[in-house]
């Protein structure tokens, strides 16, 4: 036939699907065959087109292949409506007769039809599982059709298709269908002792979720983010380590060299080895995973490289392979299945040619499979839904789960899980603890594929809980205290609390275990608590040295150490935290255990931080904050809306995630007020069950006011007087001013209006009860001691210069012939010195003045005379004050108000680094020789 043949192809994709069209396009010109291909996009134009024509409603352009653009323009002919309809009717009778290679593919393939010889719904256990020899793995599994009724088989053996592959397909092309078919075909033909599955879906996991309950599945990972990706890599790495250990154990136990999983299986029957299934890791939505978690992809490739010999396989599914398949990934892939793709670039990535971009959208499941350089056109199989509404996937799932349970029970073995579910956002049930152990929460150890209670033993070291705002650190600290108190009676646990937050710890005050709760703004109480704990340690050290038990454990809990530190810095500076450092350093061996919470590592001075061996870090603002805590920077941040989620530094596995648990009694609320109410309710219930055993001694705190009527009477010592003047916190009880042979005199020093005159009146008031003592009063210009002139024990009251002159003569006589004990009291010494300068400076005349005699008394300590002088400060050029100051006996009022470098009564003031002005009237340091100075509250009038 000499007439030319015109073939019009509507859609460039048909040229790829039908091989004959491509041959006609290439060679048909020699036989008078003209092929016209219609397309909407130049990029889809098939090869071997000799000319290209572009038309629109107004103009046309054409050019020959190889010629430069722009093309030659022309005016297209127009065809009226009747002509178009006539041509369409003539063409409508033409049908494409599909012949040749790949053109007899079915449009649909049911997977269960391909698996008929392996799987039957009537059999309780797939016969294939039992028929496989022990060392067999991955016989061909059908996953589709290559035409003429021939099935397409996939074989993951190294010598066949290879262990690692990729599936690519655009939306609606059948990618998820193919994944499900491959999983089903492998699972039906291999028992869970031959094949395990690890399913990873970056998004919601809809395609892979049905396989989560299958007996083959050792992990189903979905909704990956940075944290979960890191956790997944740790879990997979742990599985590789486990497999290597199994191979090495066989080598070491039986002296047989085992290099890979095939060697292991070959010895399984001989040595009755534990099953070692092949592991198929399936990653869906790989393109999104590669963009969002590139580090995960790189780490996964490194893991897969190591896993080839260990029976680890990888199958990834993506929509855009050209964007995400790197050279490193491509080098590991051995088979490629390309469904319809969105671009020629994606197709070339998969097949090294653009054909997959032209697969028809009306044929979902049509694909090319390439292994090596050969690519075959196939129709992949699918799990279908029957006319009666019964789903193939549901049928297979039901029977495999039932069969798997029976099969594994017969083996008395089950696969090792690779993936544990993530930690719960809220945790109430934790393993029980004993003694000073606290099950603080649940620890996630993906490297060991397990989650275990974190037991913190306070005997192993002090504990600090770090965390930013709303991280749950106060709740965690309170829970620890309450957990210990719920298990130990009050005589087996003594608790002292410092509540820097002012909420949760305060709710524990009703516990009989609590000796005191102090807030940071109660500075004196803070210092008193430190001193009391220090005294406890001293007593315990003595008991231990004597071979006795140190006593019940002491627990010091401090919530928000920064608040404590700031308050003490404002008042006393850093040195009072040195007291806490000393307690932490020496307390553990003597039964003192400290728990604190802090927002950041810088809240703890370095010397204090070094004493805390156990650390928990709940969510902190920045990743570098964790580095300050642990010395290690985590790869990812903790979730922002999960209070109680934190990190713990494991000795072997590094930083691990932790979820702090809450008691069930606290309910599900995260509101601090509701939690506080729940704590108070629990405390009340515990009090109702508490035994009558004694709790800790309460904190000895100085009163802000003390009446003279509350003081005991003067006591006579062996030599001298013991005069009550106030109240001491340590040891609790009256404070005494000692005027004896060693310290016959005393100096009362304080700033203006600090209570010096009141102190003198208190001492005089107490001396009135001692009949053998006579008082000589030298009053200052303010006449503050005038009320003492009528006291029976007052033998002389001096308030002017004449009185001083007369007293000078009388004092000379008294010193030579003392008849009774005399207490010489001088008030406002600095004003007396200024007003009566001639009598309060050293005289070198033959007749000594009052000052000379007072200096001699101070320096010699002649009995039975006692000096009691009140002054604002010790003057270095004043021999009287210098003598009394060096004797180190007296009272320093408001000791925190002195500038740094001040030295009084042998003490460097202030006792800490900074001054304070917030001391109540009558607060003073009582100094007595070489004894430790004691903080006291001096008594005053009602």
Automatic annotation (TrEMBL):
GO MF annotation terms: ATP binding; DNA binding
Keyword Calcium found: no
Signal peptide: none
Binding locations of ATP: 169-176, 467-474
InterPro entries, A to Z: AAA+_ATPase, FtsK/SpoIIIE/SftA, FtsK_dom, P-loop_NTPase
Gene Ontology BP term (one): cell division
SUPFAM superfamilies on file: P-loop containing nucleoside triphosphate hydrolases
SMART domains: AAA
Superkingdom, taxonomy of origin: Bacteria
PROSITE patterns the record matches: FTSK
Limits of the FtsK domain: 149-348, 451-627
Swiss-Prot/TrEMBL keywords: ATP-binding, Cell cycle, Cell division, Nucleotide-binding
Protein name as annotated: Cell division protein FtsK
